[in-house]
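Fig. S4 source data, part A: sequence.
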Amino acid sequence: MIRHREPPPEHDLGLAYDLRTLSRRRALTLFAGVGLATLVGCAPDEDAPATGSTAAPSTPTGSATSANCEEIAEETTGPYPGDGSNGPNVLTESGIVRSDIRSSFGSSSGTADGVPLTVTLSLLDQANGCAALSGAAVYLWHCDREGRYSLYSDGVTDQNYLRGVQEADADGQVTFTTIFPACYSGRWPHIHFEVYPSLAEATSAGNVMATSQLALPEDVCDLVYATDGYEQSVENKARTSLDSDMVFSDGVDQQLADVNGDVDSGYTATVALAV
């Protein structure tokens, strides 16, 4: 479902902003109980006519199948989206459409250091029998190795690295080359993303289909954070957990990335998500 952007909220920072912009799923849980908060499954429309000889919709390759086609949880963008809803808008800048997001673009020239990470999202069209959602676009962003967000955090306000847009291919997939994000105080390690109906909508900061976050698995986080440059993440992660995280504490069934690899050659994170 496409939703129109709301007027920009008052500018705020950090955890306080996130607490005021909890997910729609969390609000439903609080006010209507677990039953109403249950996410809609992706079963075919019972009122649809029999297909006969019509071929079934294709699904993305890899882990994306109709078996796990459950609507992705709607979550807060957090205070550092860079999409124009809270300050800077990187989406309308030339150069934002890219796969490798490790370096800044345009007039900025910084590069984010860290353990390499390749993120592949497989988009499923829940309204169309969980077929591959080709032609949609994803805006993805996250913090750097030090826990800073480009455009917002002290020392990197003149940078726009670790932000990028990709258009989904025929299999509904988008892939980003990036680095493993830090664990900063108050949050479990995560990656933000927005799904747009088209590349044109994304690069004009138009209507958003879904906003959510990916959680990273603990065992991989521990290995990455034992490497140089992630020292603060070890201390921060020791003070939080998936069960206590303000976004993920109500479950990560559709948001926990499948991560493989090693710290030397880098990791790959994959997840299928329905919108």
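Fig. S4 source data, part B ends here. DSSP finds five helices and nine strands in the chain.
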